Amino acid sequence: MKAEKTLLIEDLLSRVNASPFLFVVDYTGLKVDKFAELRKRLSACGAEIHVFKNTLVKKAAERAGYPGDLSTHLVGQSAFVTGAQDVCAAAKTLKNFTAEFTKPVVKAGVLDGNLLDANGIKVLADLPSKEVLQSQLLGVLQAPASKLVRLLNEPAASLARVLKAKSDAAGEAAAA
Questions:
Q1: Which of 43, 134, 133 is nearest to 90 (CA)?
Q2: From the centroid of its chain, how far is CA 142?
Q3: Contact criterion met (CB below 8 Å) for 103 and 27
Q4: Rounded-to-integer distance, Cα 95 and Cα 37, Å
Q5: DSSP β-bridge partners for residue 49
Q6: Which of the four pLDDT bands, split at 50, 70 and 90, describes residue 55?
Q7: What is the pLDDT of residue 175?
Q8: Cβ contacts of residue 6 below 8 Å, gap of 6+?
Q9: DSSP state, residue 20
Q10: CATH superfamily of 2-127
Q11: How many CB atoms lie within 10 A of CB 32?
């Protein structure tokens, strides 16, 4: 029995170490078909949900160097969400699923070694997607460059307008 627990802890530890985040959710009262639906939705955004015994998660969290406060949230029926991709997408999926079915209840989480409460995970869910944030950053970075190009082109454009006006005035004087 001890060898099985050790293998389970090692499996869980490998999942925890491969993921920058871990969410703890209470899935009490969630039907099997709804749990499967949640698993499918999380899989679509690069995350996984698994059920392990709380004691095994506590041991794996200790070995991974997670904050000790996480163990206070490891009570009751807990499922654990991990993933290697976008943390905001996983949080958004959990939030939308909870809004739709009122379960599971998000208890806590860990992001890059820092403990998050349920409100912190909701804040993550409200953030724009990674692609949107990248495009906003690109727009912010491009704005000064485009202003600089316009500023550098303005003297030449002004000179061209003055010469054009002079030319038009000279053409009108010659025609009169």
A1: 43
A2: 24
A3: yes
A4: 14
A5: 81
A6: confident
A7: 67
A8: none
A9: S
A10: Ribosomal protein L10, N-terminal RNA-binding domain (3.30.70.1730)
A11: 7
Beta bridge partners of 82: 22, 48
pLDDT for 68 beyond 80: no
Task: For the beta carbon of residue 90, count every other beta carbon within 10 angstroms.
Answer: 27
**Beta pairing partners, 138:** none
Tell me the C-alpha distance between 128 and 92, whole Å: 10
Q: In the chain, where are the structural domains located?
A: 2-127, 129-176
β pairing state of 114-117 and 47-50: unpaired
> Which value, to the nearest 10 degrees, does the dihedral of the CA atoms of residues 121, 45, 82, 37 take?
90
Sheet containing strand 105-111, edge to edge, reads: 47-50, 78-83, 21-26, 105-111, 114-117
CA-closest candidate to residue 111, choices 54, 72, 79, 67: 67
